[in-house]
Amino acid sequence: MNLKLSPALLIAAALAITAPAQAANPAHVQRLIETRSCAGCDLSGADLTEAHLIGADLRNANLQGANLTNANLEGADLTGANLEGANLSEAFASNVSLNQANLTDANLKDANVSNAETAGAKTSGVDITGALLEGSGISVGSD
């Protein structure tokens, strides 16, 4: 059998191989948006831009590479959460718990992370350009 593939199909196949995977569990994203409670959820790579997550329970959630640009996380519990490489630029995250959280290489540009608990948090490579970090324990060179 002689099988011919169209150029459009070949391009689509190539894009599927090289495009970054969105690993977030859609059911977990929906649960978070509806209930603001998703402890231990897989939210890696999720687009949570401008999400209203006031007081959200995100303990031990995987938010690696998630987009939380301009999200409201006031009072959220992110204890033990994996925020490695997450984008929290312009996020409002005052009075949050980031104890034992992994913030390695996270983007906190212009974010408000004031009065945050950060005991044991990993903060290597965090971009805090223009961020308000009063009372947060996050600073340049902190780990």
UniProtKB/TrEMBL annotation:
InterPro entries: 5peptide_repeat, Pentapeptide-BTB/POZ_domain. It holds the Pfam family Pentapeptide. It comes from the Bacteria. Keywords: Signal. Coiled coil: none annotated. Residues 1-23 form the signal peptide. This is Pentapeptide repeat-containing protein. It comes from Stenomitos frigidus AS-A4.
